[in-house]
Write a structure and sequence with these properties.
500 residues; mainly alpha; 17 helices; globular
């Protein structure tokens, strides 16, 4: 296993662990300060701005690939010019997003969404502020990507924890304000400006960055195609998720959105582990792709798949088993729908984690057409399944169950595409993935007996010890079942070197 991948993965694990703990507590404080209705409205509004700005994820994925290639092949001057051109592109896109958001977005809020009339003005102001927040993150994103292209993630880890702490302080501070939705977004804008400016100033010093807006040969066609295909995939994924949110809002109101918001927050916290490993992997995959080394690319794909899948299972299974008990300790007020939504969305995430590394390979290979377009269509079919079922009186869980089914189909389809791109025998990668699932499933079977325990009568310390024991059991199982002997040895050596 590449030592840089191991190092970056370790740094990002530490960042994600502490950020997740802080974020989980922040959600409790924020939902308490805003109330369930306002919290539901906040997440619908933020979800709508994310849907409009789904191009941001596409720019990040493609931008990291091209910045890495610029640093590898063309040296500092071309890198500086490329950064300047990326900034121009991002400014234009941010302006377009603001224009679309301030017109179509506000119409959608006032005419389609189910929002109490006394909160309509507040919702519109909150939406406008969320677009400003989105524009700031889009414009300054290339400076963050620069650190990934050099595999230098220490600052990223530190600033991630600092950002989470500032958001927690902001949630506590809301008690001093009347217009809490608006002030929360203003605070988020201030935090985004501070964090991004730290990236800008540090990258100028650390990498001797001098932004140049000079015209030069630049693979605009390849870049725009890569961004375009990634945008289709990102937009499809976001539209599927936010479409579910809107369906819940239309048929079940803001309280259902609040339950979904909490479940999505749990999912996003768990998914941070997977996405951060993918970020650590991207630059290594681009390097191997440039060297046309299919063997190492396959090794990176399988190793990262095992690590990401194992990590998501380790974190998700205890949450699935102890959902209600954890929520009683974590949240002041929640509905039974929140428990069901969280369990279902974590099952979907476990399935989705199997195809996360395949995106890095397809981006590096510029083979995104079928991967993103057909995959996106399959994801969106979730809404076509859910909508008629809700019209005829289906429960809110239908949205999640149909999403699980479409995610499974997408994962199988994308693994098949990666298999072809890496020139592997038919069903080779799919069988490897099935093997991983069977190993972890067989190892996890004993945990079924825990579900029959009466947790209500357990002392708090015993309950915490039980969760910790399950976590350790899964951690040991992932190391034994998913990592090869030499990979376990490399990981132990890395941990020892960091401790010493």
């Amino acid at each position: 296993m590449n030592s840089a991948v191991l190092h970056n993965t370790t740094v990002l694990y530490i960042r994600t662990f502490f950020s997740s703990l802080i974020t989980i507590w922040s959600i409790r404080i924020l939902s308490e300060r805003l109330g369930l209705t306002n919290y539901g409205i906040l997440n619908v509004i933020l979800g709508l701005s994310v849907l409009i700005g789904s191009i941001q994820q596409a720019l990040s994925t493609s931008g990291q690939k091209f910045i890495t290639e610029a640093t590898l092949e063309n040296g500092k001057n071309i890198r500086d010019i490329f950064m300047g051109q990326m900034l121009v592109i991002n400014v234009i896109l941010a302006a377009v997003i603001l224009l679309i958001g301030y017109t179509a977005g506000e119409y959608f809020i006032t005419e389609i969404l189910t929002i109490p009339k006394d909160r309509m003005t507040s919702s519109i102001i909150t939406f406008r502020l969320s677009l400003v927040l989105l524009a700031i993150n889009i414009v300054l994103k290339p400076f963050t990507l620069l650190y990934f292209s050099y595999d230098d993630l220490s600052l990223f880890g530190i600033l991630g924890i600092l950002e989470s702490l500032m958001k927690l302080i902001l949630a506590y501070a809301l008690i001093y304000f009347d217009q809490r939705l608006e002030w929360y977004l203003i605070g988020l804008i201030g935090i985004a400006l501070l964090v991004n400016l730290l990236y800008v100033t540090r990258s100028v010093k650390k990498f001797d960055l001098r932004i140049r807006f000079r015209h030069t040969h630049f693979p605009f066609k390849q870049f725009l195609l890569s961004v375009g295909w990634n945008f289709i995939g990102s937009f499809s994924n976001t539209l599927s998720s936010q479409g579910q949110n809107l369906l819940l809002n239309i048929y079940f109101g803001p309280i259902a959105n609040s339950a979904r918001a909490i479940s999505v927050s749990v999912k996003n916290t768990v998914y941070l582990f997977a996405s951060n490993i993918q970020l650590a992997l991207n630059s290594s995959v681009v390097r191997e792709s440039n060297d046309k080394n299919l063997v190492k690319e396959l090794q990176l794909l399988l190793v990262s798949t095992r690590i990401i899948f194992g990590t998501v299972v380790i974190v998700s299974l205890p949450l699935i088993i102890f959902t209600e008990e954890i929520f009683k300790l974590w949240l002041v007020d929640f509905s039974w729908s929140t428990v069901i939504f969280t369990r279902l969305i974590l099952i979907e995430l476990i399935i989705h984690s199997l195809s996360v590394p395949s995106e890095s390979v397809m981006v590096a290979k510029d083979k995104l057409y079928h991967f993103q377009t057909i995959g996106g269509v399959i994801l969106l079919s979730n809404l076509l399944i859910s909508y008629p079922l809700l019209v005829f009186g289906g429960s809110a869980q239908i949205v999640y169950l149909s999403s699980i089914c479409t995610t499974l189909v997408v994962v199988l389809y994308r693994l098949k595409l990666v298999e072809k791109v890496l020139e592997q025998p038919r069903y080779f990668i799919i069988l490897k993935v099935i093997s991983m699932i069977l190993k972890m499933t067989s190892y996890s079977i004993p945990l079924v007996f825990i579900t029959f325990m009466d947790f209500d009568n357990l002392p708090f310390f015993t309950f915490v010890l039980t969760i910790f024991s399950v976590f350790c059991y899964l951690l040991l199982g992932s190391a034994l079942m998913l990592l090869r002997k030499e990979e376990r040895q490399e990981l132990v050596l890395l941990i020892r070197s960091r401790i010493q």
